[in-house]
């Protein structure tokens, strides 16, 4: 390998990025939709039905909820290693209980009536994962630990691609001001460069803070060695909280949790939000009660607690109190918390969310233009990297490009339609919604492999445009609600979802028309090029991009 | 384009070896690095561990870049494994001298 550093980096940038471009596009695209997960969930739960259901309901009684929740867990999860309860509030009136039998086991959960403690069962509400679907897609593809590792590897590839990309594009500052439209491959390269350079700091930030958020899974070596494999001890130590207590294997009942809720609310002066109990039923049991944050206050800061109180869960004695806004830990922990906040956009409100939305979509576009550029270049002049099977590999790359980019967009807006079309009473309908999302995405891959590449692009983009533009229509037909009515009653979240979908639909029409015109021009362009081989533009492109 | 056309001339085994050196060798080196750093950064143990861990992904990225810039796959492996062993031995020394938790 007698290559210069830049040539090596160019090889790495092209081939490393290509095989992960579709995964990374999916991570960026769904993660960017996830910026507005609350608004999407709000729209998907059907605001009119939620309002109708909550009218006349009594205000949430947190003490009663804690009482029936504890009774449920003592009866149904007596051997659990960990309990948790999400107490009801005005927006979410159900009591949610969670438990797991061992630290490695998956969490089990139930939704309960907060007054009677009975399993809430099939509700009249439109049960949905809502916007969380997109959030989960972007960090684990709904595939648990395997998905988390896949996304972790893809994120590392992206960091490497960003660094190698900077090396490849040495004229980075000039590239930023360079855009030559209507020049085919050159224009794709220009747009890839402009998008990358413009949002480079954002891309570095979002990828780096993303892997850091999962550092205890991805990079546990230092904590494992220094804490003898006990990561919980490390977490407690870094947050300056009492060390986790060792199991004593001595049976001891959990003290009534409503008393702890009362004590915590008195101490902090805020509503309790979540109760967690470690080692319930053992003499070592401890409980921590987390308080509700004030939204305006949370939006104005990067770190700091919402307040929590830790108790001995047998005696009820207070072990630790963290006041709202209190900052624990020193520089490294503050850095870590700030990085998490930067990734999860917990600060700055809607202004910052929109900035993230635009930068995130630019990142997705950077990945899409890169993957398209790879094929545009090879359609013009096959490089024969795969010997006799080169044409077949190109065809696979083309099909993956269409379904990985246009197909994912189609399936994502399709998810909104699925939400409105799957019957409200269907058991486990939220699982059906996600299953149908993946089925639709798979269908786009089938379609992309059957259709000629350019037709595949046009048809999937056109279908996406239709689903985006007609979203208010299907909403009106199924729930009777629409963005105009939502605006009239001051529901900006629900209206925003539909207006954003329609604006995206218009962009998809532009994209579909663009590809359609290109596919008509292609034969003429090939003729024109044959007349002047090795033009200045091509030489430039070949020298710069690989 | 030049570099892309180099690909088929490279023996597949060399590419596979280099990718493995980057993914696995790089991960081992990064892990050894952050354990070592957690011993020598002179702040509270938990903070030193977290500081090293926050740096880890930058170190890993650097290691991968270096692997692909190295002249041969063999050199790339050596560049990952030799420092890993050295840092591992140093950390073992710290471990035996101070105990696992500070």
From TrEMBL, chain A:
The chain crosses the membrane at residues 12-36, 146-173, 194-219, 354-376, 396-418, 430-450, 457-474, 494-515. InterPro entries: PepSY-ass_TM. Keywords: Membrane, Transmembrane, Transmembrane helix. It comes from the Bacteria. This is Putative iron-regulated membrane protein. It comes from Azoarcus indigens. The lineage of its organism: Bacteria, Pseudomonadati, Pseudomonadota, Betaproteobacteria, Rhodocyclales.
From TrEMBL, chain B:
The keyword Transmembrane applies. This is Uncharacterized protein DUF3649. Keywords: Membrane, Transmembrane, Transmembrane helix. InterPro entries: DUF3649. The keyword Membrane applies. The chain crosses the membrane at residues 21-42, 48-69, 76-97.
